[in-house]
């Protein structure tokens, strides 16, 4: 009897783990830019596994994605959670890049934390002081630490230290499961989904993370305060 009871609990536990794992796999996201052209977001949102999208907004000091605003507006209208990413440039200052972002990426329009996209080709000339300053400016502007997108090589070379332990990491690896820590994994650049012609990047969460980890914090409610000078009796 005791053995039968233990077996039932073991089967129940395994079943719950399987359900949790399946739910995690089925929660996917995509990231898009002008290179996907015109997206039919209504069709994209009909895929029940796609819950969120990161949209290219800016790059460097002056580049602004021509499709950003349309993608942002229509993706939100279709019911997807949206976030924005900025492509880092090693050629311009953090302040110049933040100025470009500030013009395009509005905090009030974001469902997800912003992403600093550091491409793999930057590995040898990142200028980490500039990266750190830009991360600082982004946190100050959006009220949350940005997520860092990069390759495993760049992560291991520059970000695998305690200094960056509180940042969510978005790893691109199309050959296999990442060997570094990560919150999001961009596992293919050749995905297909209805509403997008051609290829699109697909992303999924580490088993210990979920959408709630990268959502923008809810605005704090303002508490009513009493102006003591308004109710105090007049001085005699």
Give the helix/strand layout.
Blueprint: H1 2-26, E1 28-32, H2 41-45, E2 50-59, E3 63-64, H3 68-77, E4 81-87, H4 94-104, E5 115-117, H5 128-142, E6 147-151, H6 152-159, E7 169-172, E8 184-191, E9 200-205, H7 228-231
Parallel strand pairs: 1-2, 2-4, 4-5, 5-6, 6-7, 7-8
Antiparallel strand pairs: 1-9, 2-3, 8-9
Helix pairs in contact: 4-5
Question: Would you kindly provide a written description of the structure presented here, covering whatever features stand out?
Answer:
The chain is an alpha/beta fold and 236 residues long. It has one domain (27-217): TIM Barrel, CATH 3.20.20.80. Helix content is 33%, strand content 21%. It is built from seven helices and nine strands, in the order αβαββαβαβαβαβββα. It has helices spanning 2-26, 41-45, 68-77, 94-104, 128-142, 152-159, 228-231, and strands at residues 28-32, 50-59, 63-64, 81-87, 115-117, 147-151, 169-172, 184-191, 200-205. It has an eight-stranded mixed beta barrel, surrounded by four helices. Helix 4 (94-104) runs parallel beside helix 5. The radius of gyration is 22 Å and the shape is globular. Residues 3-24 and 226-236 have low confidence and may be disordered.
């Amino acid at each position: 009897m005791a053995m039968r009871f233990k077996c039932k609990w073991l089967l129940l536990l395994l079943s719950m783990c399987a359900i949790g794992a399946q739910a995690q796999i089925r929660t996917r996201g995509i990231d898009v830019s002008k290179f996907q052209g015109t997206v039919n977001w209504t069709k994209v949102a009909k895929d029940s596994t796609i819950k969120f999208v990161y949209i290219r907004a800016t790059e460097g000091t002056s580049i602004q994605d021509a499709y950003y605003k349309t993608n942002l507006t229509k993706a939100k209208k279709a019911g997807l959670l949206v976030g924005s990413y900025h492509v880092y440039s090693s050629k311009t200052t953090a302040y110049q890049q933040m100025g470009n972002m500030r013009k395009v990426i509005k905090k009030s329009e974001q469902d997800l934390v912003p992403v600093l996209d550091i491409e793999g080709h930057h590995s040898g000339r990142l200028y980490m002081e500039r990266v750190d300053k830009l991360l600082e400016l982004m946190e100050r502007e959006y009220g949350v630490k940005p997520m860092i997108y990069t390759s495993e090589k760049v992560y291991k070379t520059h970000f695998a230290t305690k200094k960056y332990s509180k940042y969510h990491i978005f790893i691109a690896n199309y050959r296999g499961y990442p060997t570094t820590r990560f919150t999001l994994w961009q596992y293919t650049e050749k995905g297909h989904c209805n509403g997008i012609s051609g290829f699109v990047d697909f992303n999924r969460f580490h088993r210990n993370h979920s959408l709630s980890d990268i959502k923008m914090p809810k605005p704090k409610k303002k508490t009513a305060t009493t102006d003591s000078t308004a109710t105090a009796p007049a001085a005699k």
